[in-house]
Amino acid sequence: MAEKDVAGVLGLAQKAGKLSSGDLGVKEALADGKVKLLLIASDSSPNTEKELRFLAGKADVTVIQCMKRSELGLCIGKAPRAAVAVLDTGFAGLIIKKMNV
Predict the structure, then answer these.
(1) Contact assessment for residue 72 and residue 39, using Cβ atoms and an 8 Å cutoff
(2) DSSP bridge partners of 20
């Protein structure tokens, strides 16, 4: 049930322009210090996950692994995504609350 709630929050955040997705977009947002929360798909490649976790660690960003790539993309109206970066503190807090992290 938590992932269903998170999907709804991600959809709202996408409409509000408070997400960055895709490999390049997520890495740029992490490098710029804009990311408040990073969601990594459970079926992303080990190399992708390792790199994103490293970058998130450098930026002191919380990482949550959830959903599959296809589900993560679907809830934001995009093609499958390995990761989605939440750029807003409010949306990030809501997702963390829904996931009980």
Answers:
(1) yes
(2) 85
Q: Which of 76, 37, 31, 81 is nearest to 58 (CA)?
A: 31
pLDDT bucket at 42, cuts 50 / 70 / 90: very high
Looking at every residue in the chain, the average pLDDT score rounds to 93
Distance between first and last Cα of the chain? 15
d(CA 77, CA 11): 8
Residue type, 88: D
Pairing of strands 62-65, 37-40: parallel
CA-CA distance, 96 to 25, in Å (whole number)? 21
